[in-house]
């Protein structure tokens, strides 16, 4: 049912299907889904529902097949991009490819790696997304964030956001902070140089990663670093366990890369998590390495799913 919120005329839906709002294409219904178009609406919804969850493209977020009881705030309409000289300010809902193209159109370098990432800016900042020796935090100056607990908008510096490999203050505190926008200092470069790098990044992703025609949440596990500093590939470790092509129901490890799990045909969140559990436990048993899961989750999960999550998240 389509109606409007009493505060700031925010569009919202009841019993809303989220299948097209997560890149795994899992069917999951939200009791309430809000489409916010600016920071006033974002803050207003959080004031009414402090337990609300934000969702952009859902490229690293597992939704429960049983549904989502918490209100879901969909940020895709918060997508304004402004630019002055070499500084870009970008709202949380802007898509990563759109950001990359906007930078390219203005001869600005630093966002070439975003061209192939199926994410919003908000998700990219929370995850400190990166590829090809570039990360979102490299060029970040500051971020405007809504502090849900204190009911105020604050500005956090790059240092305050506490970025690390696929992590940030926002990811660690999703119940406390919601990104509104972020400001970046880019570099002037020739368009040909920028385009060449974007094309190389796109070609690389086509070679080694599944397209969204094969629904997935991106890389499942972080690449581990051993105590001696040696960096390993999570996909290689899974492959050495012989798990490429391993299935539970309609979820399975991609045959071409061991760190991607595909929804082959209407898989459930339980099937997806059981595949992750097999990957995690197999690598631990064979190599004594505990992989760290990159993805997040939203929704009402079963006791079995909660137990798997506890193990693979080590919490």
UniProtKB/TrEMBL annotation:
Its cofactor is FAD. The gene is murB. One of its GO terms (biological process) is regulation of cell shape. It catalyses: UDP-N-acetyl-alpha-D-muramate + NADP(+) = UDP-N-acetyl-3-O-(1-carboxyvinyl)-alpha-D-glucosamine + NADPH + H(+). It is found in: Cytoplasm. This is UDP-N-acetylenolpyruvoylglucosamine reductase. Pathway: Cell wall biogenesis; peptidoglycan biosynthesis. Belongs to the MurB family. GO terms for cellular component: cytosol. The lineage of its organism: Bacteria, Candidatus Galligastranaerophilus. It is an enzyme of class 1 (oxidoreductase). One of its GO terms (molecular function) is UDP-N-acetylmuramate dehydrogenase activity. Its main location: cytoplasm. Cell wall formation. It holds the Pfam family FAD_binding_4. Keywords: Cell cycle, Cell division, Cell shape, Cell wall biogenesis/degradation, Cytoplasm, FAD, Flavoprotein, NADP, Oxidoreductase, Peptidoglycan synthesis. Its EC number is 1.3.1.98. Residues 26-189 form the FAD-binding PCMH-type domain. The active site is at residues 166, 219, 294.
